[in-house]
Design a protein that fits this description.
Length: 198
């Protein structure tokens, strides 16, 4: 992977962080890895005379390629939209291969079988799950954002997850007071299994 001069790259559990948090090196790496998976396996299995059917190919795409794109997307979706667009050809190419369509087929018609990456709202699912655990360390940074006014004034700045997901939570009808809270036991599960001596 080539790194521009002056950039500091930190690889952390398959996510690549650069000093500006642009996620451009990560998106390039993700695109290359996904295209390799597409070309190495799915294209071979998608042979028209003896290959797998569309259902099997879509299943392979979801497990081998889309799983890579989904991993960490809550973090890297804060990248600029122009950077995120570099992942769209990966999905379009994969769906074309899986459905055995022509290169000239319009992308919107292909995505009837597979939702676009930008509309798969994994960040909403994460926030809804997080809303039921007020003791979580990330709860405050998502639901008690102190910088909303700052990001309202600076529209060219990319807002944090809590501000980005707020309109989507309103669309799905999320209300904080309707959320049931859960808490984990202070004792580890191994303590619950110990039997008392007779």
């Amino acid at each position: 992977m080539s790194v521009p001069a002056g950039w500091i790259i930190i690889v952390c559990q398959l996510l690549i962080f650069d000093c500006k948090l642009s996620f451009l090196p990560h998106l390039r790496y993700l695109k290359n890895m996904s295209m390799k998976a597409l070309n190495n396996l799915i294209r071979v299995v998608a042979n028209t005379s003896w290959g797998a059917d569309q259902y099997t190919l879509l299943h392979l795409y979801r497990s081998l390629v889309r799983s890579k794109l989904d991993y960490g997307c809550i973090v890297y979706m804060s990248a600029r939209k122009s950077y995120l667009r570099m992942l769209h050809p990966v999905q379009n190419h994969a769906v074309r291969v899986c459905l055995c369509t022509y290169r000239t087929s319009p992308s919107p018609s292909l995505l009837a079988n597979e939702p676009p990456l930008c509309t798969r709202k994994l960040s909403i699912e994460y926030c809804l799950k997080l809303s039921s655990s007020t003791r979580s360390p990330t709860y405050g940074s998502v639901f008690e954002s102190k910088f909303k006014k700052f990001f309202d004034q600076k529209s060219n700045q990319i807002p944090p997850l809590g501000i980005r997901v707020e309109p989507d939570l309103q669309v799905v009808g999320y209300k904080m007071q309707d959320t049931l809270q859960y808490s984990l036991h202070a004792d580890p599960p191994s303590m619950a299994l110990k039997t008392t001596p007779h």
